[in-house]
DNA sequence: TGTCAAGTGACAGTAACTCTCAAAAGAGAG
DNA sequence: CTCTCTTTTGAGAGTTACTGTCACTTGACA
């Protein structure tokens, strides 16, 4: 059982303020596309929304949309928390049981997401539940999260890179995280998400004795 | 630790022999498309192989290919084992711990697959490792396996349909199964797959203590 | 202010699907 | 065996996500 109180870690490791006009414009375009997409999807649904419409609404060309996001699904997803999670995991005491370390990481990450991007998280989860393509892409993107976390755990446990047990460990935790999100979304995103995650991890810690 | 010896269950619950010419032709077309696809992929790779080529090689029209398989990825995948697994799970003693029941089911299923479709399993796993789209579709198809197994477990444990712990349980096991397959494939499909699965389930049973 | 690099838009092309409709072919009755 | 009914097939037209190229524009920096 974790869920300790801590400085509510920033969602992004901020780049230093002095950012050229170019960079700033890029960020703006990026979020313009995102906003336009979320708006159109809310009105018409995911499939009915075409890249062309998104481009028009965001006042850029379709080419530009593809330059910013490799696939349509990626527009509604984020990997932003991956590096933060890796960092937090690294910051945990080395003798803490790995499952508890991950519990802390996930608790922090979800709380942070829910406080800073509450509505977006809900809408994204809804899409994950409703749209197979989005769900699939989300799962794939979890694979890269998995790789990242595996690397950190390998380094912390002194095991072989590509150690089977570590990979199984991470796969179980992330698989369970995915299912928890789906469950939460299917039930109207009303339950306490961090609490659900803790229950799921408790199940894992107890060896899945049903 | 399971892996008991048992009658090597048939891969498919055979439909009664008296099958009309129509049905037989459909099966033939289906496997013609499959074979053609595997052949072309072996020669040229997955992405380079188009539906049009597959159709030509299988001597059907592109329309027909789409009628038999909803997506290109589905051509190289199978859900055939799902109903068998559900049946085997149902046949286990009710007082057996669920994790052990699933261990038995997975052990049987993989052994059966490896003996009856050895080469195809290997090629499919290779595709799963190499081609993100195939991997994604495979993961999605595991979702429906999950639903099936969840239903059976719910009925065996007398829990609520859609019980959170049962869903977590199945998600963990299937997530771990997926990772085991990937690991196996990445390492040349040379290890003993059932043995790896047992190791993975041992990890789960031990509460993922690394 | 002028030069260079980075970002953008227009355009053409590919391939996976979807839909519709008419032709072909198996099933079953007489 | 043949006529009818139903299922399956192929042909064709259309949509959309995505790729690659190239000329143009617009920040960066001296």
Protein described:
- The structure is a homodimer of 210-residue chains.
- By secondary structure, chain A is mainly alpha-helical.
- Helices cover 70% and strands 0% of the residues of chain A.
- Chain A has 10 helices and no strands.
- In chain A, helix 5 runs antiparallel to helix 6 and helix 6 packs antiparallel against helix 10.
- The first copy, chain A, is globular and about 50 Å long.
- The two termini of chain A are 19 Å apart.
- The interface between A and B is large, with 40 and 40 residues.
- The structure holds a DNA duplex (30 and 30 nucleotides).
Write a concise keyword list for the protein shown above.
DNA-binding, Tetracycline Repressor, domain 2, Arc Repressor Mutant, subunit A, 0% strand, 10 helices
